[in-house]
């Protein structure tokens, strides 16, 4: 399990353990305190850019979950490429039988119209799928749940701004999916027969992104009128949202860029192939309600839709600085030299 302490991995590991699997997780910092379930798994040191460490981590395993997405730094495309190449070589060397990769939805447009982070994820998928292992890729768009980057952007923008200012180009359709449904699909990907393929994964509801913002505001009991603003450049919107939220800025900018296209599923085969018979997906409204649940003292009993101890400090609503202070920071970020 790579990315075991990330948002998805940190919820998937205990699910696998509870269902009787032996799990080996990786960490790039062995001195860091492990998550609440770390006494139940085997942890090894691994930097995805160190080919020898990647090879050692894959020795003797039946399957690899690849939950690494590098959206930090200008060279994230090369970093993603090198990490995936190291993993593919390790899978070949040790005869790993299966790779499960969580990626992003790929809109049906020419490759040169894709955002950099979607194009990079697609390249990673191609590299991992080039091995003899059965490689199952799940492509998801907006993950719903406390701690999810997409959900935290929605929550923090809605809670911190009295108006929802929406660029006129941000009318694309999105198909959110609850994290509990993604976890179930990831589990199903361990045993689905080959050959290698990708699955689009999304919940039962499709809507324009502004409607998703409205739905959140209504369920969070917020009054947030929407105002459409024309001619706002994508980079400016990404910078502003990144400054107004506690989510890592470059991650926000990459997500905003992807909203130029509809992010909806092209097929729903995953409901047949990866989910238990009779399984019901959560709708958007129920996903939001469960995501807003208060923190539970005992993480083993907590709803994975809600906050968990290993989530980053910027989740669960972020820090408590006033929105005005964040707006000042946003202004500084787009007006160089304005320090006072």
TrEMBL record:
<protein>
    <submittedName>
        <fullName>NAD-dependent epimerase/dehydratase family protein</fullName>
    </submittedName>
</protein>
<feature type="region of interest" description="Disordered">
    <location>
        <begin position="292"/>
        <end position="322"/>
    </location>
</feature>
<feature type="domain" description="NAD(P)-binding">
    <location>
        <begin position="3"/>
        <end position="105"/>
    </location>
</feature>
<dbReference type="InterPro" id="IPR036291">
    <property type="entry name" value="NAD(P)-bd_dom_sf"/>
</dbReference>
<dbReference type="InterPro" id="IPR051207">
    <property type="entry name" value="ComplexI_NDUFA9_subunit"/>
</dbReference>
<dbReference type="GO" id="GO:0044877">
    <property type="term" value="F:protein-containing complex binding"/>
</dbReference>
<dbReference type="Pfam" id="PF13460">
    <property type="entry name" value="NAD_binding_10"/>
</dbReference>
<dbReference type="InterPro" id="IPR016040">
    <property type="entry name" value="NAD(P)-bd_dom"/>
</dbReference>
